């Protein structure tokens, strides 16, 4: 089926979307993208939303499929759900040309879901800038905007939360203050975002706060605290994470397993090996994956493989 035929079917067929032909939308060149733009407005909203969601899922599973040009075009779609899914779908793309449109979306999109998604993806570009993989001027623009959101009158809690999480990689004194203020909030979602941000700062000064949070009565707090400990990579967290392997909440257990896999070391590895013997299949699978990742990290060239 040609691209034009596929787009015609999307626009006019009342049946479900035929996903087997998605390859027609991969790697569109200029002329093909222009044809896509002509047909796109004729495709019903529900199909546009479903198609974007499917494109994102397929791209995650198949690195050879490239829908960047379509997703970038859809950042300006009239439907807010299409815009949101386009932003989410561009998470894996490191093209610096996305920074400007994402900044525009965070600053002025009428949908809080779109603004929140834009903040999250901008955070990834912030990390790239901090790692020297993106020009510093892009990082400065991103940091300034995120701080503007956090210190301004943004009405959406979700947008503020995601902006805090995204800003954490810059780890300035002001950002640390904002994280502390968020952790002192009475809103659970804001507190969990603060814990997430602590981990993303990669600053061991947050460790004592995180270890205290592993004993919190709320499982959402324990979950985020465990995850953040993994991000910090400090071995002092290992005994606390091992204790959480017996937590009453499965997600907390899984978060602790992931964190132990990130930290590594003898105690963490031994605890993960014991988890492989747990009755729960999810615990077994998570521990096995964490151990395999540790083995790769310890022996990336495979020199210790027994013959």
**What do we call the CATH homologous superfamily of the largest domain?**
Leucine-rich Repeat Variant
Q: H/E element string?
A: HHHHHHHHHHHHHHHHH
Overall radius of gyration: 22 Å
Number of domains: 3
Distance between the termini: 49 Å
How is the quaternary structure best described? single chain
The CATH architecture category of the largest domain equals: Alpha Horseshoe
CATH class type of the largest domain: Mainly Alpha
Which ranges are low-confidence, i.e. pLDDT below 50, for 5 or more consecutive residues?
Answer: none
Q: Kindly report the CATH topology of the largest domain.
A: Leucine-rich Repeat Variant
How many H/I helical runs?
17
Provide an overview of this structure.
This protein has 3 domains: 1-93; 94-202, Leucine-rich Repeat Variant, CATH 1.25.10.10; 206-300, Leucine-rich Repeat Variant (Alpha Horseshoe), CATH 1.25.10. It has helices spanning 3-12, 30-39, 45-61, 68-73, 80-89, 99-108, 112-130, 136-151, 157-167, 173-183, 188-201, 207-213, 219-232, 238-244, 250-263, 266-275, 281-298. The protein is mostly helical. Helix 13 (219-232) packs parallel to helix 15 (250-263). The chain contains 17 helices and no strands. The model has no long low-confidence stretch (mean pLDDT 93).
Topology:
Elements: H1 3-12, H2 30-39, H3 45-61, H4 68-73, H5 80-89, H6 99-108, H7 112-130, H8 136-151, H9 157-167, H10 173-183, H11 188-201, H12 207-213, H13 219-232, H14 238-244, H15 250-263, H16 266-275, H17 281-298
Helix pairs in contact: 1-2, 3-5, 5-7, 6-7, 6-8, 7-8, 7-9, 8-9, 9-11, 10-11, 11-13, 12-13, 13-15, 14-15, 15-16, 15-17, 16-17
